[in-house]
Amino acid sequence: AVLQFLRRSNLRESEEILRREARLLGDDLGAAALSPASAGLLGGSGSDADSGEALLGRGTSAAAVAIGGNVATVATSSPGVAAVAAVPPGKGEARGGCGVGPSSRREPREVGSPCAARGLSVMLGHKGRLGGAVVVEDQPDVSAVLSAYNQQGDPTLYEEYYSGLKHFIECSLDCHRAELSQLFYPLFVHMYLELVYNQHESEAKSFFERFHGDQECYYQDDLRVLSSLTKKEHMKGNETMLDFRTSKFVLRISRDSYQLLKRHLQEKQNNQIWNIVQEHLYIDIFDGMPRSKQQIDAMVGSLAGEAKREANKAKVFFGLLKEPEFDVPLDDEDEEGENEEGKPKKKKPKKDNVGSKSKKQDPNAPPQNRIPLPELKDSDKLDKVMNMKEAARRVRLGPECLPSICFYTFLNAYQGLTAVDITDDSSMIVGGFADSTVRVWSVTPKKLRSVKTAADLSLIDKESDDVLERIMDEKTASELKILYGHSGPVYGTSFSPDRNYLLSCSEDGTVRLWSLQTFTCLVGYKGHNYPVWDTQFSPYGYYFVSGGHDRVARLWATDHYQPLRIFAGHLADVTCTRFHPNSNYIATGSADRTIRLWDVLNGNCVRIFTGHKGPIHSLAFSPNGRFLATGATDGRVLLWDIGHGLMVGELKGHTDTVYALRFSRDGEILASGSMDNTVRLWDAVKAFEDLETDDFTTATGHINLPENSQDLLLGTYMTKSTPVIHLHFTRRNLLLAAGAYSSQ
């Protein structure tokens, strides 16, 4: 019916594409007229070609229902929400709404050119049932996902197939061998799962034992999970394996290597392997030189292989927003103080308006009003002025001038310290603990005080100059405040930039917002159903982000109890979250060993970075917004160029999980803290200078990392027995570190 409709509407090109897709090459269209039902489905009379065009989504199970003359497309995607888009005839494209949820991660690929979808008012489901009723499934259809393993090969030949391919790859030329070796792991997993699914348990066991030793060392954890799946029943509830099945494993291979592989498999009639390659792998083919073993090793290791090159093509506004301008009254003693130090020059031009630091708009910055940001309050302006004054006294760091490090050790933290944050002006420090408490300390002589009770406040003269002093209750002054409210370990804490609020997230699935004026809980945000691993305030306040075990990151605003954006795409827990300095983007690190960069404006994923060999636990943006540093359980710190979407450096040295990363205020030095009880300082200027980001590198991902990163390491500082879980540079570039002393 669809083909007839296309022919009638004279849409030759679309007809061709659809024929190719459906493999209807001959003229097998009977002259049967359209049945009334299908005519109704194709937008009323069928005369209006654009009665609601829907994209053909391959991965998403979908169906179309005709509602009167309107066409509605329903796209369902594993757990989450199905969106229904009803489109009046002639209103352009009805794109099936994709499920928003932890595993709705298969973007429909557009078939051929955009015009392929012209006039098709049907979204073809993967089962091809177009009935009156549409079943919107909530759960991933496990049986459908797994039934792809039904194509039976001879179970006894699997080992022969695999070892044949292995022999072929190992005997191929060096330049192709490294690239083709990437096939070993995904093929091994799929062939093993196929054997298990078809209940050839003994063959599966011997297949696993024979070949699991050949896999790269960084897949050991995944193989441990795999080895426990020995029966068909085990596959039903296992998330990792479902992911492996539903998301295509991405391999990036040069055209020459791919042709070689294709020829070999076709000559050998090795259909079993060829089927898996076509069904379960996504081969991203590029023209040019094959990549070397080192280049491939740097980029692989994530749950779903590498990122497709398309994933990192979108434009990212990584520049900084222009600072607002305002006048700064300079005190006289300030001037004299500066003169004594002998550098009055710096201060003079800043006299009129300190905010004029960046008069010119950064060409890579997003438009100022791209996302709504909160207005600056008077107190914020005052704070900015203080910040500027501090900045004038800031120490310029570099290889010759390393920062002093002040370490806050939490002693006797038998409650188990699980999170730390320090305010921007370094006046308060907060700890989240496994006993579900949040503890706030003042690190300056100024004690923490609460606001007086309402009855006392009514007696205060509101016009007096020191009204802000008078509203504080001296009787409540103390160095430590304990906040009770969570019902599970607190995994993340974050102060708001204006120091009025504090966020904490916990295993209990909630994020709580606390007032630092009254030291009470103001809101509990419930959106995650599982533990929340991290939360962070935007550098402008108001917005904050959280990420958790449900594989999703959520963007919130303090005055909304529902999330504003849901960022779905990771294949495992979202373990850490960070705002970009311009607040338009959010980076998330995950246990699927990838880092994603999300656009706050529309919720799109604009970068996917692969290369870590273990779950990501720390993220830090450089102060100029151009680079991102990431740390993981593999002990490596990787550096990324956000604009080009490329890995530009690898810092090796830590021997355990890197839990803390922070750039100095001017971006000259990167500090990393780890479970190996050390803080290391790296030369960020040198790491980022003369980067090769020519078009070829960006197009193919041929990155050339220096063999060792020792010349970038400026210093290693051991603690006695304290893992480092937080780092913070003060406004004058003193480095503060924090962790809990562990006696063993």
From TrEMBL:
What is the protein name stated in its UniProt record? Transcription initiation factor TFIID subunit 5
Look up keyword Transcription regulation and say if it applies.
yes
Q: Where are the WD repeats?
A: 410-451, 483-518, 525-556, 567-608, 609-642, 651-683
Which source organism? Zosterops hypoxanthus
Q: Where is this region: Disordered?
A: 328-382
Q: How does it assemble?
A: Homodimer. Component of the TFIID basal transcription factor complex, composed of TATA-box-binding protein TBP, and a number of TBP-associated factors (TAFs), including TAF1, TAF2, TAF3, TAF4, TAF5, TAF6, TAF7, TAF8, TAF9, TAF10, TAF11, TAF12 and TAF13. The TFIID complex structure can be divided into 3 modules TFIID-A, TFIID-B, and TFIID-C. TAF5 forms the TFIID-A module together with TAF3 and TBP, and in TFIID-B with TAF8. Component of the TFTC-HAT complex, at least composed of TAF5L, TAF6L, TADA3L, SUPT3H/SPT3, TAF2, TAF4, TAF5, GCN5L2/GCN5, TAF10 and TRRAP.
Xref: PANTHER family: TRANSCRIPTION INITIATION FACTOR TFIID (PTHR19879), TRANSCRIPTION INITIATION FACTOR TFIID SUBUNIT 5 (PTHR19879:SF4)
**What one GO molecular function would you report for this record?**
RNA polymerase II general transcription initiation factor activity
Q: Which UniProt keywords apply?
A: Nucleus, Repeat, Transcription, Transcription regulation, WD repeat
Against CDD domains, the record matches this protein to: TAF5_NTD2 (cd08044), WD40 (cd00200)
Bias regions of kind Basic and acidic residues — which residues?
351-362
GO annotation, cellular component aspect: transcription factor TFIID complex
InterPro entries, per the entry: LisH, TFIID_NTD2, TFIID_NTD2_sf, WD40/YVTN_repeat-like_dom_sf, WD40_PAC1, WD40_repeat_CS, WD40_repeat_dom_sf, WD40_rpt
| UniProt record similarity statement | Belongs to the WD repeat TAF5 family.
Q: Which Gene3D superfamilies does this chain map to?
A: TFIID subunit TAF5, NTD2 domain, YVTN repeat-like/Quinoprotein amine dehydrogenase
GO BP term, pick one: transcription initiation at RNA polymerase II promoter
Record-linked PROSITE patterns: LISH, WD_REPEATS_1, WD_REPEATS_2, WD_REPEATS_REGION
Any keyword Cell cycle?
Answer: no
